[in-house]
TrEMBL record:
Name of the featured protein: (2Fe-2S) ferredoxin domain-containing protein
Source organism: Verticiella sediminum
Length: 104
């Protein structure tokens, strides 16, 4: 059994200005990750056997970003704002129903 029921990784990669590829962090990935971490704690979902929210380096899908991935299901998402993050938390992490409209 996994140490966490869900392990969520947010790409927070930051490329140099003028780079030939986009960066998830230029789309607010760090603040989205911080929001998700707070929300999961507020809902009492964090900790061993529950949900872990992590920052990750480049997940190599920044062109589709910002992106996050939820394990163990390996479901990839993109998002626009904290409302999307809240929907992922409420639907996927709480109820076990992936949010198809945000899936990559």
């Amino acid at each position: 059994m996994s140490h966490y029921r869900h392990h969520v990784f947010f790409c927070t990669n930051q490329r140099e200005p003028g780079a030939d590829r986009p960066s998830c962090n230029n789309c607010g990935a760090s603040s989205a990750q911080e929001h998700a971490k707070r929300k999961v704690k507020e809902l009492g979902l964090s900790g061993a056997g529950k949900v872990r929210i992590n920052k990750a380096g480049c997940l190599d899908r920044c062109e589709e970003g910002p992106v996050l991935v939820v394990y163990p299901e390996a479901v990839w998402y993109t998002y626009v704002d904290v409302a999307d993050i809240d929907e992922i938390i409420e639907s996927h992490l709480v109820r076990g129903v992936p949010v198809e409209r945000l899936m990559l």
